[in-house]
Amino acid sequence: MACQLCAGIAATEALKILLKRGKVYAAPVSLQFDAYRGKLRRIWRPWGNRSPWQRIAIAIARRQLGATRRRAAAHLP
Question: Which of 31, 46, 51, 63 is most buried by a 10 A CB count?
């Protein structure tokens, strides 16, 4: 379902560009859609991935992913 939602949003954005209708947001603006709650959010991230807050979030995610990988590797036969 996620791939279909993503493809639908991408196709809609492409049509907005081709038909010159509506506003199309460029990076560092992102769209997040929660299908369960039916909510769409537009988020602006100043400086993109160069932002100090984004770098902290990426570091935390990498640490958690590394811990998950180590636990999974420990359970392998």
Answer: 51
